Amino acid sequence: FPLSFSEKLIILILKLKGTKISFFYRDMYWKFNIGKKTMFLLRWKKHYLKQLISLKFLGIFANQLYTPTKSLINYFPKKIQRKISILPPAGEYYDINYNPTSRSGIIYVGGLSKRYGLELMLKTFYKINKDNKIIPLTIICREKDYKNNMNFIKNYLSEDWLTIKHLNTNQLQSEFLNYR
User: Fold this and answer.
1) Better-scored residue on pLDDT, 92 or 33
2) How far is residue 160's CA from residue 58's CA, in Å, rounded to a whole number?
3) For residues 79 and 33, is the Cβ–Cβ distance under 8 A?
4) In the predicted model, what is the mean pLDDT of residues 61-73?
5) Which residues is 164 bridged to in the sheet?
6) Where are the beta strands (DSSP E) in 16-101?
7) Closest CA to 113 of 87, 150, 88, 140
């Protein structure tokens, strides 16, 4: 789906605060007219235009874009291709010099499930933080996801580095504004 106005606003505010913006661009179904037959022509053209605007917005404001495959990179405009890396399921290694005086920690917003890597994320943060290198993780998710994945989460609930929140859209925007 194209970025909503509020998503663009959040990205813009974070960018103005000096946050590096990375974005995972999963697919470009819209570029191949997939779904066109299920919409009226005017609605499809509006959807297509919104996708193009979102892509241009990300090209301007994102520091890094990720795609799941190398072949998908070829469908991006040449100007944007230099910002793209492949992020297959295993990811890439980066050496992070975390400074707690300038950063609040890591924030994850989205669905929770083993399929999305919840168990791996929690194990990773546990390993990172076990030697008193406290890098906080704030997870913002739907309460239903939280309850459905309690078997993965329960072992970490007492950890100082983990905070789990359930926020509506307005609260989420406020949370982003207060994050550094």
Assistant:
1) 33
2) 34
3) no
4) 86
5) 139
6) 22-24, 64-67, 84-86
7) 150
* 4 backbone dihedrals φ, ψ, rounded to 5°: -80, 170
- CA separation for the pair 151, 122 (Å, rounded): 12
Residues 6+ apart with CB under 8 A from 20: 63, 64
Tokens of 95: 């050496």
Taking alpha carbons only, the member of 144, 147, 132, 139 closest to residue 165 is 139
What mean pLDDT is predicted for residues 71-79? 84
Point out which residues pair with 24 in neighbouring strands: 66
Residue 165 or 70, more confident? 165
Quote the CA–CA distance of 82 and 158 in Å, as a whole number: 42
Helices and strands, number each (H, E), in the chain:
8, 6
- Rg (Cα) of the chain, in Å, rounded? 18
The Cα–Cα gap between 93 and 170 comes to 34
pLDDT at 147: 86
Higher pLDDT, 173 or 122: 122
Confidence of residue 87 (pLDDT cuts 50, 70, 90): confident
Q: How confident is the model at residue 43 (pLDDT cuts 50, 70, 90)?
A: confident
Residue 101 CA to residue 151 CA, distance in Å, equals 33
